Amino acid sequence: MPDREAGGRPAAILIAGPTASGKSALAARLAERHGGVVINTDSMQVYADLRRLTARPDPDEEARVPHRLYGHVDGAVNYSLGHFSRDAAALLATLDGRLPVFVGGTGLYFRALEQGFSELPPVPEAVRARVREEAEGRPTEALHADLARRDPEGAARLRPSDRMRVMRALEIFFATGRPIASFYGDPVPGPLAGWPLKKIFLAPDRAVLRARIDARFRAMIAAGALDEVARLRSRKLDPLLPVMRAHGVPGLIAHLDGAISLEDAIVRGQADTRAYAKRQLTWFRHQMGEGWRWMDPEVAQSAL
Fold it and tell me: In sequence order, which residues have a C-beta less than 8 Å from that of residue 197 and are 6 or more positions away?
């Protein structure tokens, strides 16, 4: 049984890793064995619209062991780090001593659980609409250059191709006149502050991971992911919403619009997912705090 502190609270388990590394299976096995609860720590699996394309646990898996914070958010919502932290804190208060097993691939969510997060100010809708209207049709790199002139520190933190976050930083600047980094002090405490933690990062062989990503994307299509994206497309949501930028969505929408073939959309989705997995590995290696144990997935399954 996982360790418990003097008051009887179990050590929370944190399982992170790149997409398709086997995290969900390991988390479910641990939670089932120890009477725990699997808690989603992935920014895309929160959305109800994309069960298949985000590889959410299927209904049979969810019936076998409790799963929380999966598919509870509508795609029209811009679900933020603050939303996740508050939802996680509220959930922890209801566990009654059961083992929490946090699992996912979103590094910022894991960091917020331990270290807290900084609240960003709300952006008036008129400001958001003006920034987005002026950005319409402009390449993300040009918007990043605009941000660099106004907020060099904020721009330096962001990839020039990360349109959503570049736009967010521009919105904050125009709404407040201040760089986004000026709001990063005095974070709200993390939901797991003070908890004993066991932290595992699954690090598969790179070639194995690439093959699993490619095979899984095709399996998602066979299981109905294209139909999910067709329903999402019919809603005509803001293309900057996170759900509209999930890996595979832009390419599959381009196919549904007649711009590319289904095979081209699959190849694009596979490539985007492989690139994301590479970024996940790099981010965790350089950005996370101490105490993470890197393990091969097969070793982790055997050891735990």
Answer: 11, 12, 13, 14, 114, 291
